[in-house]
Amino acid sequence: ACQLVVAIDGPAGSGKSTVGAEVAKRLGALYFDTGVVYRVLALLALERGIAPDDAERLAQLAQNLSIRVGPPSIQDGRLYDVWLDGRDVTWAIRTPEIDRLASLVSAHPPVRRALLRLQRELARNGRVVIAGRDIGTVVMPEAPVKIWLHASLEERARRRQRDLARRGIVRSLEEIVAELADRDRRDATRAIAPMRPAEDAVIIDTDDRTIEEVVETVLAVVRERC
Ligand code: C5P
């Protein structure tokens, strides 16, 4: 029997969350977004005044991270709740500042090592859709289904701008393009677990496809491989 693990990787704004959550729903699987782990670490570091280049203290913090992810407790557009030590941090980890800090803290090898087990444990029960940057290559290289979502920088920036606007955050497209490009470059060129498609990943270009079309394509790959 096939252990249903669907790994979805891709850059920011490629549609991992939207597609991943919908695919999980249709498969009756759990959805887990690993970006949450780096975002929570970034938030905690910010609150405790730990600098984003202090690899040692960040790794220590990462060792003891206690995150809980669960079904949405409020209907405010969230796909799921994120709890940190009993505190609802679902939106606190979705600010432009945390976007940038998460990418900075995630580049340290000891931080990634410390968070690897946590991510694998979250995926252990099987029947899971897990999204990130290095799921197919590092976290779950044995996943039977690996997807890489592609989208142009312009399209990703437009999507991000829309998402932010829904939450009342107004930003220019130029600003968002610059931030995404900066984050992509850092995520793709870091020494450890750089963002890239696995050799056996199915690459889906989402630019001219609807969410439903992308979801259908992923489900077709699941049927074929699992
Ligand atoms: O996907 P999301 O935008 O929430 O990820 C935030 C940051 O966390 C990314 O920019 C990346 O630096 C880091 N990340 C990572 N590996 C993952 C998921 C996220 O390095 N598997």
Task: Write a brief structural summary.
Its EC number is 2.7.4.25. With 226 residues, the protein is α/β, with parallel strands linked by helices. It is built from nine helices and eight strands.
Helix and strand arrangement:
Blueprint: E1 5-9, H1 16-27, E2 30-33, H2 35-48, H3 55-63, E3 67-70, E4 81-84, E5 87-88, H4 96-105, H5 109-123, E6 128-132, H6 135-139, E7 145-150, H7 153-166, H8 173-189, E8 202-205, H9 211-225
Parallel strand pairs: 1-6, 1-7, 2-6, 7-8
Antiparallel strand pairs: 3-4, 4-5
Helix pairs in contact: 1-9, 2-4, 3-5, 4-8, 7-8
Cytidine-5'-monophosphate (C5P) binds at residues 12, 34-35, 38-39, 102-103, 106, 132-135, 183, 187.
Small molecules (ligands, ions, cofactors) in the structure: cytidine-5'-monophosphate
The outline comes out as globular
Q: Would you count the extended β strands for me?
A: 8
- Spell out the helices and strands N to C: EHEHHEEEHHEHEHHEH
Strand order of the largest sheet: 2-6-1-7-8
Classify the helix fraction into a percent range: 40-55%
Detail the poorly predicted runs: none
N-to-C CA distance? 8 Å
Calculate the mean pLDDT score and round it.
Answer: 95
Q: Give me the Rg, rounded.
A: 17 Å
Major sheet, described briefly? 5 strands, parallel
Count of helical stretches: 9
What is the strand content?
15-25%
- Helix/strand-derived category reads alpha/beta
Features:
single chain; 226 residues; alpha/beta; five-stranded parallel β-sheet; three-stranded antiparallel β-sheet; 9 helices; binds cytidine-5'-monophosphate
